[in-house]
Amino acid sequence: MTATTEESLVPVFSTPSPAVRRVPVDRPWLWLQRGAADLAATPSISLGYGLALAGVGFLATALALLNGWLALLLPLTGGFMLLAPLLAVTFYESSRRQEQGLPPDAHACLVAWRGNLPSIAAFGIVLLLVHLFWVRLATLLYALLLGGAHAGPEGVAAVLLTPAALPFLVVGTVLGAALALATFTISVVTLPMLLDRDVGVFMAVATSVTAVRASPGAMLLWAGLISGAVAVGMATLFVGLIPLLPLIGHASWHAYRDVVRLPAATGAAGGALS
């Protein structure tokens, strides 16, 4: 990691607390480089879990199409953005183990959330509630802007490409992007921090918001890269998500480690490595 100076650190609170480091705009490319190295070091764990997540996404989308649930396509797509930080805990732990020189362990990575279970579970509930809110909002938009439009899998494109669907697509995209950006702001380093240290949700979220405020350019680029990865994954019928989800997950760990500086007294989350 690059050496830091006190001038480059932004405290989260005035009392002894975590601090965040300002980073240059192009810093996310370094996070991706380090994430790619972690993925290459543990391909079976990373790609195996990526395949499982992509498979679940594909089945959920196929189910929506086969049953004519056109209104659910938008929230299902957005759900990957909103729940991605929670789904990536396995990748965070894999990168942490590599950083500490520990051998690959698929079981330890899958149960890493147990180390700080109350806080991780609480933030997971927050992300789930945000996703449920997005589902309800997208369904309401569909009902208001597309009325009774209904289509099976062969008619989805026809419905979405009609002039009547344009307001739905525009409004849904704008609101979805705003919600995704807000979720990104409160979660960009939150779950890696909860996994790594025995801290509460409020402290982790405050650190995440401070990190975004301290380096808005870098964080905006990082959000764009994540969105682009999700878009590529969706455009390739989830096949692209198999390597891209692990890549983003591993890189997110390095984003946290690069940006957040914790007080020496802050202990590691107990049991996370077991």
Automatic annotation (TrEMBL):
Keyword line: Membrane, Transmembrane, Transmembrane helix
Domain of life where this protein originates: Bacteria
InterPro entries tied to this protein: DUF2189 (IPR018692)
Membrane-spanning segments: 47-66, 72-92, 120-145, 165-189, 201-223, 229-248
Protein name: Putative membrane protein
Species of the source: Nitrospirillum iridis
